[in-house]
Each structure stands twice: as structure tokens, then as C-alpha cells.
Amino acid sequence: MGAGRLYTAVAAGGFRRYATYRAATAAGVFTNTAFGIILVYTYLALWDEKPHLGGYDQAQAVTYVWLGQCLYATLAIQGGGVEKDLMERIRTGAIAIDLYRPADLQLWWLATDLGRSLFQMLGRGVIPFLFGALFFPTALPSDAGTWAAFLVALLLAMAVSFGIRYLVALSVFWLMDGMGVNQVMMITGVFFSGMTLPLNVFPGALGEIARALPWAALIQMPADVLMGETGAPGAFAFQAGWAVVLLAAGRLVQSVATRRVVVQGG
After folding, report:
1. How sure is the predictor about 1, in pLDDT bands with cuts at 50, 70 and 90?
2. Please, what's the b/e burial string for 169-186 (b: 16 or more CB within 10 A of its CB; e: otherwise)?
3. Is the dihedral of CA 50, 53, 59, 62 positive or negative?
4. Which of 21, 85, 196, 227 is deepest in the core (most CB within 10 A)?
């Protein structure tokens, strides 16, 4: 089997695996829709007081909320993607089996996570997004080109998200327990991705720093591409740059870990 076919099959396996959790998916759809409604009314009240906050009008702010609810599980903003399985395999020593596979470790887990992401978007993210577009005023584009650019931004966001979480998972080679780094990832993921508020709203130096960090590639960049607030080439360059840096760092850490660190239980 060629490499391309192998990793396509791995991604399809990741998609099918998460598709079996039907009750969890239904609960996730309900939760994201309910939180979306709460956030929308919170945003509307805030934008009533401060129109054009962060450069958005109310319709754009509402669109941002529903896009965030769509991408929350898709991009594993608070974790909960394949890094949980990887952490456990490192902790128990089962990772040694993965290293004997005739496949690249990082690409294997990247393909698995892409399959998971695609299912979470289609199974859990699309319905809340469509609900929001149907019942609330939104600022969605009418041209196919903008939607195509958004899909590219979304794929790049998936790569950046995986790059962050892969590095977090590899830390277990040294820490032997992922609980602490998971907690840190949850906090930073929610705050710096813009799940709480758009990063455009953050003032001064805090805003500049937040918009320069890799988490900005997860929600803020796709949202601004979708709503025409930023040029697609610049957004793609930002996202692709962080994806390359993070994936390269993950490969370097993986190399060091598998050469020099004794796997617990392995």
C-alpha cells in the first residue's frame, strides 16, 4: 500500500471510530447549540453597549459565536483529541508497538486526528452552525470563493491544532503523566483561541501577543477569512507558518524522546 493510501485509510479509520459514539455526538450537538444561544445573547448585549467592538458589527459577532461552537470539538480547543490516546500509550509503554509500525509516527497520528476532526465538524459542528444561521442574523458570504478560502483556512487550523496537541502529548515521555499539561492546554486553548471573546477585542499588548500566538490560527483566522475581515493569503501564511513550526518541533521532540527517553513500562 502506498503512503498516501495508507494515511488516507488511517484518517478514514479515525472518522469511523468517532462516528460510533452516537450518543456523545448527539449530546455534543445539544451542548454546543445551548452554549451558542447563551453566548449570542451575551455578545448582543455587549455589542449593544459597544457597537463595532473589535471591528465587528453585531451580525459578525453572532457569526463568530456560531463558528466557535462549530469548531470547538472539530479543533479540540480544550483537548480531547487523539492526544489523549497518545499520552496513554506513552505512559503505559504501548508506544513501543507504534514505533515498530512501517509508518511515520507523527503522520499516523496526524491522519487519525484529521479523521476525528472531519467527523466532529460534520457530526457535531454543522448543526449548531446551521441553527445559528437560521435563527440569528449572521454575516455569511454569498460567493463560493470565500467559502473555498475558509475551507483552506480550516484545514490549516486542523494542522496547527494537531501540532500544539502533539507537542503536549510528547511531554509525557518526560512527565509520565499528562494531567497537568492537559489542564494548561485547556486554559490556554479557550483563552488564546478566542473561544471566550474574539482576539480582536483584546486591548493593547495583550491583543498583539494573543493574535501572534498559534492559537489565533484556530478560530480567529478562519472567522476573519469567512467574514472578509482579513486577506486569505495573509491568513494562510500565518497559519501555514505556525503549522510548519509546530510540526517540525514535534518531529524534533519525537526524535529526542524515542532515542533518549526510556519509555515507562516499555
Report:
1. low
2. bbbbbeeeebeebbeebe
3. negative
4. 227
> 3-class DSSP state for residue 225?
helix
Identity of residue 169: A
Residue 11 has pLDDT above 70, yes or no: yes
The whole-angstrom separation of Cα 18 and Cα 26 is 12
pLDDT, one tens digit per residue, over 133-154 is 999 999 999 999 999 999 999 9
Q: Which amino acid type is present at position 141?
A: P
**Residue carrying the nine cell digits 478562519:** 222
Q: Which burial class, exposed, middle or buried, applies to 86 when counting CB atoms under 10 A from its CB (0-12, 13-18, 19+)?
A: buried
Give, in degrees to the nearest 5, the angle at Cα 240 between 153 and 101.
Answer: 100
Residue 263 has pLDDT above 60, yes or no: no
